[in-house]
């Protein structure tokens, strides 16, 4: 398979991101139903609801910026060079915001994992309390 031009790669990226966003939105809806309306997760649902909503908002914003960049490149770009000029400008605000979106997504996900591990470790479940020190010694 040959090299894919930058313009086609961005169009393909938007297509795949839209499909994966649909999966994310569907999974979010089913999980929120369980988190908010299930009696088995009392007290823990609101924290995960907040984190999941932040991740969804961040992903939605990233997809919106990606869509805006494609509209700007293919519809509004009338100058010399066409859409390639839009993508070659790496200091463009869309590229910076998309990079920051990845950083924010990573920070939210890492904070969620650390908080969940801390919650599990501090519980009185003997399996969790014995597994964590054993796994800590494995390096």
UniProtKB/TrEMBL annotation:
List all membrane-crossing ranges: 12-30, 45-65
Superkingdom to which the source organism belongs: Eukaryota
Keyword set, alphabetical order: Membrane, Transmembrane, Transmembrane helix
Q: What's this protein's name? A: Uncharacterized protein
Please report the organism this UniProt entry assigns to the protein. Agrocybe pediades
Print the organism lineage: Eukaryota, Fungi, Dikarya, Basidiomycota, Agaricomycotina
